[in-house]
Task: structure prediction
Amino acid sequence: MSGTTWSALSSAGTASIRSKSPQEILNLFGPNLNQRERKELAAMREVWYFSLDSGDRPGGIYNSGYDNDEEQYVPVRHEHLNFRYQVLKMIGEGGQGLVVQCLDHKTNNLVAVKILASPYNPMDEKSHSMELRISRELQSERSDVDHGVIRVLSTFHFRGHSYIVLELLKASLHQVIKEAGQQLIDMDMVKTYTRGILLFLSHVKSRGIVHADIKPDNVLVKDTVAGTVRVTDFGTRFYVAPELLLGYLVTYAIDMWALGCTVAEMVIGRELFPSLSNDDHLPCCIEILGKPPRFLVDGALHRNQYFDRRRKPYSPEKRRIPGRYPLERILWGHSQQLINFISCCLRAEPEQPPSSSSSTSSPLAQNSGERAEDVEEEVKEEVVATEVEKKTGDEEEVETEKEESEDEEGDEEDDEDDDEKEKDDDKEDDKEDEEDDDKQKDDDKEEDKEKDDDKEDDKEEDEEDDDKEKDDDKEDDKEKDDDKEEEGEDDKAQKDDNKEDEQEEEEKMEEVQQQLEKRKRGDLERVGRALRSLRSLLRRMLRYSGRPTTQ
Result:
């Protein structure tokens, strides 16, 4: 114990067998406690760690100085949280809250404590409550080992914030990708990490939960050698799937979209969709995956925000051409199995299933099956495909023999009924085939029309670009001519100025010369007068001396 802190840990660093009561802390530090600290202490049953509040919290302006202007808690090194956890350092922060590394003075273990930001509105408060509820609901005896769920050690409320105490892990998958750099993560480790995330997603899906925030920052690596991972954070931000941007409801498919983005980031070492802003995110996806299917656009609540009346996507930040950088090109050099896996995760999967007539060749528009909500199941189906086909063939053969036997035992009346029914079925099938053909023709016409419209749009854009480029060239030439004319005028003005300066200089020299000549004449006149005076003086002197005067 020092003058400002107290800990249940012994000097040897081992956990104490007993904590102190609030009254004991009051006896030790009572005169130095403010009213809020006294109230906090009175609500506690036991104290494992205590430190006096220094009052020095940079940026703390709200909530008695504990929060900054973004309603985020401002932690101070070595302060106590809930009279048990000692703050050591900051681990990370985001819009939903921040995470600090702490020492648990009850167990003498290092832990990660997530401090949720104060809710701005009822929606934020609901989101915080949901995260706390889901975090506790997924906990079981072996949920961390069997399903990759991060261990939640405790939750509490303190100083107007909700706290989640988690096991402290080594690094996030984002840090692993960053440290790998240009060498990238080994493909065997990519598979191992992916399997760990799939185990987690399979578990939460079985509990009816959508994680909604799968990304490398929220995948924590427990063992970099074994590749074991733990997934944290529910429902904050996510790799946004196109259907969410367009206004469709949240489904399990968005977790698979985020998984595809995460696997791609592990493989290429950077974000798959490097959008410039929220408005640029969907155009960025379309630039790689191609245009979304028509059903996805037509049924979108926010269609007009991203597409014009001809279903052509807007590009507010920069010009993005649909399908300019195909997924296959970005993943060039990797196996087709990996490309298929990521493409399967990135299929469009809104709440309403698509029709078979709206398929195109782009991953966004593939709808021959559902997005891989559970890719493990698809892999199992591929592995046992041959066995299933063989078994199905045997069953069909047995069923056929049974039906033949029953037909032989039937009477003539049943045969006539079967024939009549078969004729009706044939007529119905023919009618349906005709309707399907007509529908297919209409779809083909519509698709051809869309292609023609796209070609026309591209042609118009090219012509506009050419015209604009020509106008720019003309404007550049005009500017060059104007610059030359200005340069000529400047040269002429400079020459005139130089000429005027020379004339002024000559005039000044001439004036100086005249002054010198005038001064010279004046000097000569003065010398002449002086000589005449001297000669007159000499004459007078000689006269008085009696000597003859000489001229």
